[in-house]
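R.M. (postdoc): so does anyone remember the format we settled on? I'll just put the structure tokens first.
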């Protein structure tokens, strides 16, 4: 019997396709006198956050999106940060606002997330936007789950009627991912650190999404033969190498499709952030009772 080798879901290539289409959309906007603009707020000196912000800035620049990078001190007060957010909420030239997480201990991430105007919430984390998602009437989508859905669209992988198992229940990936899959007629199970006999659930999955934050957590024996495996993990192993939540070599022998790490979900997250910024510029921004038309 021949050993199965999973096909790679190439996030680098797909994100490149998406960026090229976004360039065209930005060109059309600029011809109407509108430049999509994204405000990115970075608090403190977290090295990983600096890298993420740099990558977002570089991606925006290539597409033609203007970015305003705001770097604030580690000891800034919550009130001062909320005033910054309010400033950009009220600036009609800004189409999207992103506050890079994590934030220092003295600042409530929930308060900051809720302070961003829902119509400028490019991360898709505002409770209003999450509510619309769960009601199957999405306005702004969390970027990582949205990017994952693009894989299924691009590679024409069916979702309806499939058994989807998600390992992880974060507000950033697990919970919104479940809503998106449910909205596409899948049968969804969310598992997590307190789930007993986890592998009994994962072995039932036609589509397995690992977002648990532990290196090589999902092994070959945890995966149903022929499953589509989405690895959301970004971990450093004991050698400092970037690895996912899935033991890639072994799982690739049983899965039909798999996302690599790096080069899978990561590039798609940034691509969706860019797409959402362009979409906001295209549709106009609603602030209070005022409508800013985009031509």
């Amino acid at each position: 019997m021949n050993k199965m080798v999973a096909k790679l879901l190439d996030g680098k290539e797909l994100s490149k396709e998406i960026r090229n289409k976004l360039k065209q959309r930005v060109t059309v906007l600029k011809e109407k006198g509108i430049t999509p603009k994204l405000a990115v707020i970075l608090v403190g000196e977290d090295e990983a956050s600096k890298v993420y912000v740099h990558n977002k800035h570089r991606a925006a620049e290539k597409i033609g999106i203007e970015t305003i990078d705001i770097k604030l001190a580690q000891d800034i007060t919550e009130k001062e940060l909320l005033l910054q957010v309010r400033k950009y909420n009220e600036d009609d030239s800004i189409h999207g606002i992103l506050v890079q997480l994590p934030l220092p201990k003295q600042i409530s991430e929930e308060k900051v997330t809720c302070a961003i105007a829902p119509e400028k919430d490019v991360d898709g984390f505002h409770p209003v936007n999450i509510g619309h998602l769960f009601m199957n009437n999405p306005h702004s989508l969390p970027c990582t789950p949205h990017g994952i859905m693009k894989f299924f669209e691009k590679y024409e992988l069916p979702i309806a009627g499939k058994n989807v198992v998600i390992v992880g229940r974060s507000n950033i990936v697990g919970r919104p991912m479940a809503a998106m899959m449910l909205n596409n007629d899948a049968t969804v199970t969310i598992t997590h650190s307190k789930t007993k006999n986890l592998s009994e659930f994962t072995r039932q999955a036609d589509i397995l999404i690992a977002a648990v934050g532990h290196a090589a957590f999902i092994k070959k024996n945890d995966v149903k033969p022929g499953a589509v495996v989405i690895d959301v993990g970004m971990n450093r192993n004991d050698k400092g190498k970037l690895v996912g939540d899935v033991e890639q070599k072994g799982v690739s022998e049983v899965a039909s499709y798999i996302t690599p790490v790096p080069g899978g979900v990561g590039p798609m997250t940034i691509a969706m952030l860019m797409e959402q910024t362009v979409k906001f510029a295209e549709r106009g921004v609603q602030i209070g009772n005022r409508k800013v038309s985009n031509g």
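R.M.: ...and that's the designed sequence above, right after the tokens. Also worth knowing: The chain has a mean pLDDT of 93. Residues 11-31 form the longest helix (21 residues).
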